Amino acid sequence: MILSASRRTDIPCFYSEWFCNRLQAGYVDVRNPMHPHAVSRVPLSPQVVDGIVFWTKNPAPMLKRLDALQDYAYYFQFTLTPYGADIEKRLPPKNEIVATFRKLSAAIGKERVVWRYDPIFINSTYTVQRHVACFLRLCDQLSGYTENCTVSFIDLYRKIQRSIAPYGIAPPNDSQIEELMGCFSEIACARSIALDVCAEEIDLTRFGIARAQCIEKRRLERIGQCTLNAAKDKNQRAACGCLESIDIGAYNTCKNGCVYCYANLNGTRVERQCSAYDPKAALLCSVPGPEDRVSRRNAVSLKAAQLDFWEDVQK
Known about the structure:
The protein has 315 residues and is of the alpha/beta class. The protein has one domain. Helix content is 28%, strand content 18%. The protein has an eight-stranded parallel beta sheet. Residues 307-315 have low confidence and may be disordered.
């Protein structure tokens, strides 16, 4: 079983204490977003958790808790963009986030920190030229601290239309994508950073840009020193290459305040749901109710081989 922690919220930034308490307890309860009274009890034993993928814009609060992860294979999807407080309203200054990125990489290894430059959008402030300049600067700052950078282009989900409207945000058009990816590829290659693209139908292989697998089989096998019998996640978009996983987060609980966020309905909903946060609770930002039905999730290890076999293969 692979855990996603989480596409729905920034657990390392806001809920690392809760997460580590759940590891210690050995399980976590997760509401089904489509059927809120259906609660899954997911086991968190290292014997069944083959890997954990964290998604974050600011894992600084989790740096002091990395020892709690020593029995697990894990890595971070770390989003670091060029956008300022006009767009990402409650994030620290970018120089602080860069410092956190480098500190995390130094602590756990660059193979465990994947840089995400996404979503890419265009408006009067964040032009193609500004993206190229910012990407160059970030590549210079992160060179040697990551192996990969994953990019994607903004999706105009209906739920974000109102929040992005005042900013004139639009996806890059075909010619802008050509210019951006041509420049990005050259910049990243010169700094030994592999570039890939997340869940996009467009073929960018002519720029040396592969399709991303953000929950990645090879990376988890390398970190966990095993082989995994894991299938593609059927619950994601067709262009998504991720492995199947169980997401343990909750929507409407991320407090980063990004105007393009698809995981929050609105600020009022986030404030109300976050008020239920209890770091000792089994559910994230949620209180059990009389109508809830808790069922144990059938979770098994996907490992096909153990360390001794892996070492034999490597010889």
